[in-house]
Amino acid sequence: MIQPVIHAREAAPKSGRSWWRIDRQDVYWLLALTLIAGILRFASPIFLDVFSHPTSTAPISAWGIGHDYQDPKIPGLGKPNEIAPASPFVFDELYFANDAHDDILGRDYFDPEPPLAKLIIAVGEVLFGFNSFGWRVMVALFGTAIVPLMYLLARQLLAVRFFAIAAAILTAFDGLLFVESRTAVIDIIPITLVVLTYLIFHLHLNGDTPARQRWTIVLTGILLGLAIGAKWTAIAAYGTIIVILAFRLIAGWTRYDRATAGTALLSLAMLPIVFYGFTFMRYLMIEHSITNLPQPPLAFAPFHFNLGAAWTDIAEWHRQTWLYHINLKADHIFYSPWWTWPLDFRPVVYYFTNTGLGVDQSTGSALVAEIFNLGNPLSWWGGTFALVGIAIGLPWLIRDYRSRRAMDGIEREGRDLAGTVDQRLHTSIFLLTAFIAAWLPLSRIPRGLFLYHMLGGLPAMLLALALGLTSLRSLHGLLPGFTARISGAVPAYAFLLMVIAFFFYFYPLWTGLPLTADALNGHIWFAFVKPWPNWCLCYWTNPG
What we know:
Layout: H1 16-20, H2 24-43, E1 46-47, H3 49-52, E2 61-62, H4 93-105, H5 116-128, H6 132-157, H7 161-172, H8 175-181, H9 188-205, H10 210-230, H11 235-251, H12 258-269, H13 271-278, H14 307-327, E3 349-353, E4 367-372, H15 377-402, H16 409-415, H17 421-439, H18 458-474, E5 476-478, E6 485-487, H19 489-511, E7 515-516, H20 517-522
Helix pairs in contact: 2-6, 2-7, 4-5, 5-6, 6-7, 6-8, 6-9, 7-18, 8-19, 9-10, 10-12, 10-13, 11-17, 15-17, 15-18, 17-18, 18-19
């Protein structure tokens, strides 16, 4: 008798919601955390007048992101090193806000950073004018968007909702990300693009159909080019993606058909270069003193028609930019060695004033205000500790991965409370690679660098801490010699609450809220002098 041939049916593709690993609860968390992050970034500085003025008709008031910290009508308001002492710009807004304005007007300028971030800042200036709100609004949007993007990235890395919630909370309540999101400097823009790139890349890795794999790797290549076009530090993400994808292909964790393999190769080899080049489109519309190309006077006018001359112009910009970065020798009191950044030392003062703020009603002391870009100490120290723990524990995680088939169901279920072992192994390798790629190469840069250059490695640090908290939360059982059961969930939740408490403790120094000098100095825990790592804020004196 001839047996019927039974063809195995291919598994149906996952729904879009399953592929993204989100459900209704995730949507609620995303909306809530994004709303909180947006309010903090756009409305700050927020004053709780209900405490100092309990009978006030406005118990809560806010200056908002458009507040002119350095009112040009008040003489003597200084920024570090007294650059532009009577201007509305905070820190390097002096450069980037004006560069964006020059892009709008079609003026020539030289800045040793790629153009995309300044073009994004220019969008706000076109929409809202050349004022503090106009040049900060797009930065604040990117600084808000990074919170839900970190949530979604965490969901792709590990199928445990708490991991995503913790990652988003740590991102929303970090001080460096908060300050960078409220100041018209460019660094938050490439980092947000990098997190978006990592998200799309992991959607690619988790894609269950060739079509999903193909369009996500194409989008990954495009986003890489745009991120690098915002700042060269995003090259670290390019290297991370190449290393992770090569590792997964060799290990057999990711498989391609021939068409998908060709798409991936072309997308990662060509698209980043092409779209990086596209970020210079506006640059080609402006006459530059470097090569003196002919250019019509109207802004947003046609391209240079002499493509050879245009190529010379861009090539010369890259040469001049490279020379700037390797030859910059100017000293700055806020330079910090690369090895101190994970420890959150040597923050940069963005703003200070002791003029025109009045006096404290309870003590009669004069009020001062300051903004410095310190990261949330609890998150940074915890993230550094978590990365070290991941590196140390990696051999044991590899052993668990190799022996997972020999485990019985109960043991496997217990170990998978913090995510399946294959997900945890990939996440650990990815986070270590992303952090090292963003951090260690900067140790070879000869010019002076600042704490905010750690921003590229910060997403990996915060995700590592979230992974550690997720593992802690999964622990439960009896301690030797004790009868009461313990749960790691309590300290994990408590840690997140402490991170939020630390945020509000340092909130005055991240937003420029007026304080007495004693209150301000009380927040400075490490007032050593150079060359020792410190939190010294006294830029008006030489700290050693």
